[in-house]
Amino acid sequence: MTMPTTVPAYGTEAAERLASMADVTATDSALRRFLHGLPGVDAVGLQARAATLGTRSIKTTAKAYAIDLAISMIDLTTLEGADTPGKVRALCAKGISPDPTDRSAPPVAAICVYGDMVATAKEALRGSAIHVAAVATAFPSGRAARSVKLADTREAVAAGADEIDMVIDRGAFLSGRYLDVFEEIRQVKAACVREDGTAAHLKVIFETGELQTYDNVRRASWLAMLAGADFIKTSTGKVSVNATPPVTLVLLEAVRDFRAATGVQVGVKPAGGIRTTKDAIKYLVMVNETLGEEWLSADWFRFGASSLLNDLLMQRQKLSTGRYSGPDYVTVD
Fold it and tell me: Which CA distances in Å does 178 have to 87, 116, 136, 233?
């Protein structure tokens, strides 16, 4: 992976475009006017397009390429109260070498853990290019004082986290307190900066299953990007409705439009409920058709998943040998 970990230095044109939008976030009323002035989402059209893209048939060599690409985009995740250092080390070993019987299988993009497991994951991944992502800001609820959220972020970064996955305050967003949400993202972004000037990348989680409407998802996307998000992410994986193709399409269209307006490119991460190779390939088709090949990279697109990797490995082995292995072919994490 080539994802930089320094604070992004925008080109002159992008910096000027962003500066020209500063008045949008100057006051709560200005931000509200801007967000509510975004084009409304045609829900019927959105769902129809997502469904149509999901019918594309990908076979043979294209399918093999898509499987390896999907593996390389996974944030392999364990976020349980019963997580142990041993479990995290085992997950890291799997991320480095997903299929011990086939060394051609690519490594995953990142290992995602709670902040107290960052040092364990960092040590286990030493010498690899895999990043350590830490959830922070009172994940998954986001219900904590801002000082606690910022301390949570700083501690994870100090422990070696390459990426921070923060959750927005959905209560504030749904109450229309957009500037509060904006300022919190900005402050968390600042907390990601290390003393040497490098920074952990910031992924902003919306918990789209709680945002109620596609219009709210679009507004949250723009709000987060204006605040400096490096990635926008659908879900925590901890609620009943997580990533869906229509919601992910809203995020993809938002980053496309944001780059057209500002020159700044932002990544997208659907998370939660993506379990099969067939599902993963549908998302890759959606990325390609909406954003183009430039976003088909772990630098700009990720899957937040714990069980997806096993199905990808099973399908990969089927393409290689012509048969499915037994259920013990892959480890159960």
Answer: 39, 30, 20, 18
H or E stretch covering 202: strand 201-205
Q: What is the residue whose two structure tokens read 């890759």?
A: 284
- Per this entry, what is the length of the chain? 333
- Which residues are tagged catalytic? 165, 233, 269
Indicate yes or no: pTM above 0.70. Answer: yes
Residue range 77-87, pLDDT digits in tens: 999 999 999 99
- Give CB contacts under 8 A, 24+ apart, made by 142-150: 142/167, 142/168, 142/169, 142/170, 142/207, 143/169, 143/171, 146/184, 146/187, 149/184, 149/188, 150/187, 150/188, 150/191
Q: Indicate the DSSP class of residue 196.
A: T
What single-letter DSSP state applies at residue 23? G
- CA 98 and chain centroid, separation: 20
pLDDT band at 240 (very low <50, low <70, confident <90, very high): confident
DSSP reduced 3-state for 303: strand
pLDDT tier for residue 66 given thresholds of 50, 70 and 90: very high
Residue located via tokens 């006051």: 27
* Buried b / exposed e along 151-188 (16+ C-beta atoms within 10 A): ebbbbbbebbbbbbbbbbbbebbeeebbbbbbebbeeb
Q: How far is CA 107 from the centre of its chain?
A: 17
Whole-angstrom distance, CA of residue 287 vs CA of residue 265: 14
Q: Is 200 helix (H, G, I), strand (E, B) or coil?
A: coil
**Three-state secondary-structure class, residue 177:** coil
